[in-house]
Model the fold of this input.
Amino acid sequence: MVVLWSQSAKNALRQAFEHIATDSHQAAQAVINEIVDATLILVQHPERHHLDKFKKNHDGSWWAFGLHHY
Done:
C-alpha cells in the first residue's frame, strides 16, 4: 500500500502548520510529525481506519481518517 496526498491535502497541512505556528513553531512541527506518523501507520494497518465514504467510484482501496481539527 502507498499513501498518496492530494494537492488539497498538502495545502491543508501547510495551512494548518502556518496557523499553529503563529502561536508555536514547536507545536506546529509536533502536529505535522504526528499526522505524518499516522499516515505511515496507515500503510501498515489500514484496517484501523474506515474506508473513505466520500470517494466516488470507490474500489475499496481508499481509506480516510481524521486526526486533528482547527
Notes: Residues 9-49 form one domain. Helices lie at 7-21, 25-44. Residues 25-44 form the longest helix (20 residues). The beta strands are 50-51, 63-64.
